[in-house]
């Protein structure tokens, strides 16, 4: 009986520590799915822990890469603010890749739309 209980608790501890160990994106500015009436001046990515941001790519609806002044980060931080160039109305996708403090590679994407009709008003 004690053996079964010890195995159960060991497995529960292993699963819970692994679930908590991975760093995740907690938010961004603009937020994923935002419909904007004005072009954002910057992109902000917020994480649950320290991350080395290794790759960042912004593409428009025509899959054209928008040049950014981004360089892979040597220092780990939990928040990154990246200046954006002037953007014209389109749907944009941000692709990011990093490494958490636990050495696990993480990646994701988010989208936002700059609406031509709303930006004229």
Walk me through what this model shows.
The protein is an alpha+beta fold. Helices cover 21% and strands 46% of the residues. It has 2 helices and 7 strands, in the order H-E-E-E-E-E-E-E-H. The protein has helices at residues 2-21, 116-120, and strands at 25-29, 34-36, 42-59, 65-66, 77-83, 90-100, 105-114. Strands 1, 2, 3, 4, 5, 6 and 7 form a 7-stranded mixed beta sheet that branches. The model is unreliable at 10-19 (pLDDT under 50).
Uncertain residue segments: 10-19
What radius of gyration results from the CA coordinates? 19 Å
Shape: elongated
Major sheet details: 7 strands, mixed
Please report which band the strand proportion falls in: under 5%, 5-15%, 15-25%, 25-35%, 35-45% or over 45%.
over 45%
- Distance from N terminus to C terminus (CA atoms, Å) equals 71 Å
Based on helices, strands and strand pairing, what is the structural class? alpha+beta
**H/E order of the elements?**
HEEEEEEEH
Overall mean confidence score, pLDDT: 85
Q: What's the total number of strands?
A: 7
Q: Helical proportion?
A: 10-25%
Number of helices: 2
